[in-house]
Amino acid sequence: MFSQTGDVDIIIRAGGREQRYLLHRLILAQCSAFFEAGTSQEWSRQAGQELTVVHEGDGARRTMGDRRMRWRYELDAGNGDDDMPMLIQRNPATTMFGGEDAGVAGSRLSALPPPPPSTRNKPSPPQAGFFRTMANFSAMHLPPSSSARQPETENETLRDYDNLFRTFYNHPPNLDTLDIVKAYVQCKGLLNLADMYDALDVVGPRVDHHLLQFQGRLWKQIAKYPPSYLKVGYLARSKVIFAEALVHVVGQWPAGAALVRAQLPEPVLDVIEDKVDELEDLKTQVERKLFRLTLTTTRGERVTPANAYLAWTAVSLFRQWLAENTTPVSLHKETQPAFVPPPVPTSTGHHHSSTSRSHHHHHHNNSNRSQARLPPPPVPPQPVPSLQQQQQQQQSQAAAPPIDVGRVYRLLGAGGSAYLNRDELKRFLKLRPDDYNRETVRRFEARMDEIKDLAREIVRPLMRNCLGLDLGKDGGSLGYLTCTKVEERDFPWEDGDQQHLVR
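^ that's the sequence the OP posted. Answer follows.
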């Protein structure tokens, strides 16, 4: 493969199989900073590489004295199971004539439909013979594979490296186009490899282009696993995937915070924390307006029990409903102290316990009776909780069931009979049978509708959906807000691609 022009020999051994590639330094250096540094003259001189003389065949133009550098890379599995396999540069094997061993070249580039336009400048396309060679790129495995086809889940390392080199040569990688779960696993492996060899600028647009083809299925998968897709969007420099996952992560925060902090870099965490703060500020402003919401009389005065008792009652009922649905469950219950002092034993209780013990221990009968006449012992001082015990108490309190904030605000945004419907208002008015009648119910319901209309306008900023996922009228099954707006300045990478995010 590329025996006349290739100058970088790459050998990948994994799973009892071996694939060899003879590729071009120019392509590798343009696509990967790892290969650009490894094949530079400075690095090659330090590594002790030797120049080999390459003579052309009789049928081609003969250039005497033409010298060309050759590089050789092999996949090193490392010393332990935790080590990541990585390409290590070796001295190229030379023949007795001074050239390199020609038994090289394996790959999987096959004839596929024309790929989408590349985001990076590549060298000018060579002659047609180059493409005929690339068509055979997938048929050269060493050793040859058996007739039985291996499972697709096997030899992921070979697959990822093969997709990496295909992408370098502007050929579409072999990624699943039907099953989004398999496609995610393949894209994740390819991105991790590209991140290792500093080739995300080339591989990222390919992964982004492939995943976005799933459209609606992609939005549903992101909703199920937002932290995982947030990392994929970050590595692929995909503004669409990153923004979609970021809205879910911010809405669910602090749920999944440990997972996010474990697998994402500091710049992404800074963006998440900034967006969480913005969302909390917006929620605080909305809640403040909701609790201050009131009605006015025909004279423009705020309703009070003196000037509009029925309207004031409607406002009070609304505030009570709002407080109950926006207060954590743990605060509704009376909290117990962390350390409860033991009960003080009384003389009677101590006498009964001593008498009971005397039936089992007759030789202590007299001493137990004498102890029963003594005054109760002093209560020991209450121990001061340690820092660790205080932290455990705070964690147990924080483990209370979270509030379904998204559901509450969506009810407020829906208005009408979504909450405090006619039946609930009737039950409330029946608490005062003397004032309950049809006219009172009608007037009370009309005033409550006015409050709901005002509340709907107040929560409108929180009802905005910034997801590609269609939440429907009731917001689907999401229990969190999706109003986080992601702007261009929120993407934590310097050299972003040319996608345009529409929100």
